[in-house]
Amino acid sequence: MLSNTALKEMILIVALVAAMLLLVSVMGSAYGVRVLVEASCYAIIALGLTIQWGYAGLFNAGIMGFVALGGFSAMLMTFPTNPRFWESDLPGELGTAFLKLIVGVLLVVAASQLHRLKVPRKIQIPFTMILGAVVYFWVINSFAPVTGSIVREAGFIGGFGLPVWVGWTVGGILAGTVAYFIGHICLGLRSDYLAIATLGVAEIIKAFLKNFEWMTRGTLTVSPLPWPVPGAGEVGFIMARALYLSVTAVMIAVIFFLLHRAYNGPWGRMMRAIRDNEISSSAMGKDVNKRRLEVFIFGCILMGIGGAALATFNGIFDPNGYLPLNHTFLIWVMVILGGPGNNIGTLFGAVLVYVVWVMSEPAALALLNAISYLGDLWFAWEAPSDFSSRALQARVFSIGLIITLVLRYAPKGLFPEKVPQHK
Amino acid sequence: MALLEATNVHGGYGGMNILNGVNMTIDQSDIGVIVGPNGAGKSTMLKAIFGLLHVNEGSILLRGEEITNAEPTVLVGKKMAFVPQEKNIFPSLSVQENLEMGAFSRKDDFAHMLDQVYSFFPPLADKRNQPAGELSGGQRQMVAMGRALMIEPSLLLLDEPTAGLSPLYMAEIFERIITINKAGVGILMVEQHAKQALQIASKGFVLAAGQNRFTDTGENLLNDPEVAKAFLGG
Amino acid sequence: MNELVFFLNNVVISGLVIGSIYALGAVGITLIFSILRFAHFAHADMMTLGAFFAFFLTAMFPAVGPAIGLPTAFVMLPIAMALTAVTAIYLDKGFYKPLRKHNVKPIVIVMASLGVTLMLQGLIRMFMGTSARSMYIDDRKDIYRIDLPFELASRPLVITDPQILLFVVLIVSVISLHLFLTRTRLGKAMRAMSDNPDLARVSGINTDTVVKVTWVIAGCLAAAAGTMLSLDVTLKPDLSFHLLLPIFAAAIVGGVGHPYGALAGGFVIGFAETLSVFNWAVLLRPFRDYLWFDLPSSLAIVPTEFKITVPFFILLAILVWRPTGLFKGKVL
Ligand SMILES: Nc1ncnc2c1ncn2[C@@H]1O[C@H](COP(=O)(O)OP(=O)(O)OP(=O)(O)O)[C@@H](O)[C@H]1O
Ligand SMILES: [Mg+2]
Questions:
Q1: Could you say which ligand is closest to the alpha carbon of residue B85?
Q2: What digits encode the pLDDT tens for the residues B15-55?
Q3: pLDDT tens digit sequence for B130-160
Q4: pLDDT in tens, B150-207
Q5: Residue A390 pLDDT > 90, yes or no?
Q6: Is the dihedral of CA A177, A180, A185, A190 positive or negative?
Q7: With contact defined as beta carbons under 8 Å apart, do A387 and A380 qualify?
Q8: What distance in Å separates residue A13's CA from the closest CA in chain C?
Q9: What is the domain count for chain C?
Q10: Helix/strand/coil percentages in chain C, nearest 5
Q11: Contact (Cβ atoms closer than 8 angstroms) between residue C195 and residue B93
C-alpha cells in the first residue's frame, strides 16, 4: 500500500518526466539535454538555498551575486592565459599595485591597533580614518594607470589556464568568503537585515564584475570557457552534453549524500531547533549565530559552485547576463515550490521550474504573435514595436505571483519537509 | 445577575492547555483577587477573559451575555478594561497621550475623565507631557491604570498592579483600587502580595496548575490554615 | 569661484534633491516597519507605480498643467497619490494580510513583498514598455539659472522647476506628517501601535484602521517621491532598482521606526552619494601650484559606476557599529 503522500509524490515525478519528454520531443534531444544540464546546475544552486532557507530560515535575496562569483572564478581560473598580458611589463606593474594594496591594508590595520600601545582613542580613531583615506586614494591611483593600460594593450589579464575543477572549487571558496563577511555582520540581527544586505551585495558584485574590465572584459564577455569533458567538436552535441550532465549528476549525488547525513544528525536537529525558535538566541547566544553562519556560508558555497558549473557549461562569462530574476527569484520559486528543507523536493522544483521557465519564452511569444495577429485582423489594432519584449515581462509578473501564492496556499511546497522522528 | 461569570474555562497558547477548568464569578461590587504560585495560569486566565487567548472549552459571560473568545476591541466597547502585567504603557508617548489612547474607542468628549485621572493620581498631573517611558515604576503603574480607567469601565482586570513597588506605594495603590471599586467598578486582579490583597478582597481565588484550588471570601481564605500553609507562606 | 559654483550645483543641490527623494521613501519604509514589522521590499516599486499613475494622468489631460502654469504631472500628483494609496491598501489585503492572519514569521512577509515587487515590475513594463519616457508631454521643464553676485562667478547656479517643487512637496509632507502624528487621534494611535502593538489592541485601538492609514501615508509619500524624481529626470521602469538599497539604508541609518530619523537618513545617504562621486580635483585645481603632488584629472572617492556601493557600505557600517541607527530606533 502506498501512503497518500508517497502517491502524490509519484504522480508529481511522473508529471515531471512527462514534461521533460514533451520538451525533448518538441525541441529535439540535443536541446533537451542542454536544458537538463542547466537545470542540474540550477539544482546545485537551489540546494544551497534550501539549506539556508529550509534548514535554517535564512533569507538570501542576493543569490545572483554568489552565482556570478562562481561564474567569474570559473572564467578566471580556467580561461587560457593571455600572452599579450603576460609577455608585457604589465604583470610587474600590476604586482606592484597589489603590493601597495597589501602595504596599505597592513598600515591601516596597524593604526587600528594603536590603542594597544596606549595611544588614546581620541587620537587613534581620527588618525586611522585619515590614514585610511590617504591609503585609499594612494591605492586606487596606483591601480588606475595599470588597469587602464591592461585594457588598452592586452584587453584583459586573461585566465590562469587551470583545470576546470580548480575554477569551480575557487568559485565556492570565493562565494563562501563573501558570505562569511555578510553573515558575520548581519546574522546577529533580525533576518530582514540579511535580506537587505544580500540584495545589496549581489548588485555590488555585479557592478564590480561589469566594471573591472581588466579582469573580466566587462560587457565584451569572455568565451569560450573550457569544459571538464570532451566538447561537442569531439564527440557531438548530445554526447558532450550527456557527459557534462553526468558530471553535475555526480556532484548532486555527493551533495545529497552529505546533506542527508548532516540533516539527520545532531547538526541538523540543532539547525531545525534554531529555525523553529525552540532554542532562543538569547539562551544559546553566540552559538546560535555561529551555527547560522555555518549554514549561510555552506549554502553560498554551493551557489558559487553551481554558478561556476553553469558558466562553464554555457561557455561564456557575461556579467550583464546575471539578472536577479533568473538567478535569484527563479531559484526561490524552485525551492519554495519544491519544498524548502526537502532535498528531493528542491531537486524536483529545480528541474520542473527550469523546464517550464525555458518553455514559457516561446510559449509567451507564440501567444503574443497570435494576439497581435488577431488584434490586427479584427480590430485593426497595431501592436507596439516593442511588443515582444513587453510580453516577456509577463514572466516577471508570473514569477512574482507564484511566489506570493505559494507562500500563502502551499507554504510547505509540493514536497513538505520530512522531519525525522527521534525518540 | 453576576457581572462576570466564567465557567469551566480551558485554554492555552496553542499546544497544551494551561487552564484546565477555571471558575470565577464577580459581582459589580466585588474586588476579586486571584493568587497562586508562579506559572499557575493567573495571567493566562485574565488574558482568556479578555479575548487574548483562545478558550477551547467553557464559557465566559458578561452580565449574562456570551463573550467567550470575543475580540478585545469588542470587549472595550462593553466597558471592560485590562491592565497587563508587563509592558502596560506606551513608553514613547506622553502620559497624556497614553491616557488618550485608553479613550481611543470613545467617540464622545472625555476631557472630564482626564481631569479625574489626574486628580486621582496627582503625580501624573505634573508629568502629563513627559514620555511615559521616563517615569518611575510606580508612576508607570498609575499611567497603566489611568489608561484603563479612561473608558469608565464597569469591569477592570488588573494583572499584578503592585509588582515591584515598595510597600508604601503598594498600600497606596490598594487604596486607589478600593476607591475605584466604591465608585461602582467591578475588579478582578491577580496579586503576588497575597496576604495584603486578600485583606481588601471580597472574593478570593487560589489557582494552581490551571485550576481553582480554593474559592471563598478574602477573609475566609486568609484564615484558612490550609491556604495559609500552602500559599501564603505560613 | 566657478569651482565653488560647480560644487554647489553638483553636491549641494543634487544632494538635496536625491536626499529628499530618499527621505520620502525611507519615511514610508520606516512607518511600515514599525507598524507591520517587516521590511517592505516593494516600496521602491510603489514609487515607480506612483510615477506611472502620474504619467498616465498627464497623458490623458496634457493641457491641464500649461493652463495653470505648473507641470501637468505635478498637478496630477494628488490623484496619483490617492491611486497609489488605494493600490497599497489592496496589495496589503491581497498579499500581506492573509499571511499576517496565519501568524507566519515576518520574514515570510518580506519574501511575499519581493514577490509583489516582481508583479509590479512585470505589470508596469507590460503596459509601458521598457524604455524611458519624459513626464512632460505638452509642457517643458523650466530651468532657472541664477547668477551669483560675485565678480569671479561667471557660471550660474542651476535649479529646475521640479526640484523646487520637490522641496515644497517634502516640506509640506513633513509638516503634515508631524502634525498628523502628534495632534490627531489616529496619528497618536499609530505611534502607540509602533510602541506596543499588544497594548494597542488591549486599549481598544482599531489596529486594522491603523494599518490602513499606514499604507495610505506610505503610498502617498512613495507616489510623491517617484513622480517628482521622474519629473526631474525621466520616467524609467527600472527606477525602483536604483532606489531600493538607498531608501533601506536611509531608514536603517535613521533608526528603524523613527520617521524623523528616516528623514535625516535620506539626506545622509543622498549627500554621501553626491560627495563620493564628486570630482574633488575640480575644487583643488585652483591650488594646483601649491600642492606637493600631481593633481589627477579625476579625484572622486568612488567612480560613478560604483555609486551603489555608497549606501551599501554606509548600511554595513551602521549595522556593525550602531544597528539601532543614529536616532536610536528599534533594536531588531
Ligand atoms: N505567551 C505564552 N506562550 C506560551 N506559553 C505561555 C505564554 N505565557 C505564559 N505561558 C505559559 O503559561 C503558563 C502560565 O503562565 P502565566 O503567565 O499565566 O502564569 P502566572 O500565574 O501569571 O505566573 P506569574 O505569577 O509568574 O505571573 C506558564 O507555564 C507559562 O510558561
Ligand atoms: Mg502573571
A1: 2
A2: 788 999 899 999 999 999 999 888 889 999 999 999 998 89
A3: 999 999 888 999 999 999 999 999 999 999 9
A4: 999 999 999 999 888 888 888 888 999 999 999 999 999 999 888 888 889 999 999 9
A5: no
A6: positive
A7: no
A8: 26
A9: 1
A10: 70, 5, 25
A11: yes
Q: For position B173, which CATH number holds? A: 3.40.50.300
Do B and A make contact via 3 or more CB pairs under 8 A? The reply is no
Q: What is the pLDDT of residue A67?
A: 97
Region A219-244: mean pLDDT is 88
Quick check: is B68 in a domain?
yes
Is residue C202 assigned to a domain?
yes
Angstroms from B116 CA to nearest CA on chain C: 18
**Which ipTM did the prediction report?**
0.92
Atom of ligand 1 nearest to the CA of B207: 21
Q: Is the CB of B129 under 6 A from ligand 1?
A: no
Q: What are the strands, taking DSSP E only, across chain B? A: 4-12, 17-26, 31-35, 55-62, 65-66, 80-83, 155-159, 186-190, 203-208, 211-216
Architecture of domain A33-82+156-409: Orthogonal Bundle (1.10)
Other CB atoms within a 10 A radius of the CB of residue A136 amount to: 14
Contact yes or no for B73 and C196 at CB 8 A: no
Q: Distance of CA A115 to CAs A107, A111, A118, Å?
A: 14, 8, 5
Nearest-angstrom CA–CA distance, C173 and B46: 43
Pick left, alpha or beta for residue B93 (phi over 0 → left; psi -120 to 50 → alpha; otherwise beta): beta
Measuring CA to CA, which residue among B212, B216, B173 is closest to residue B196?
B173
Cβ–Cβ below 8 Å for C114 and A197: no
Is B115 domain-assigned? no
pLDDT at A305 over 50: yes
Which residues form the domain of B184? 4-84+154-231
Say what angle helices A29-49 and A343-379 make with each other, to 10 degrees.
Answer: 120
Element (H, E) at B19: strand B17-26
CB contact under 8 A, B76 and C203: yes
All three cell numbers of C320, joined, read 556593525
For residue C163, being part of any structural domain is answered with yes
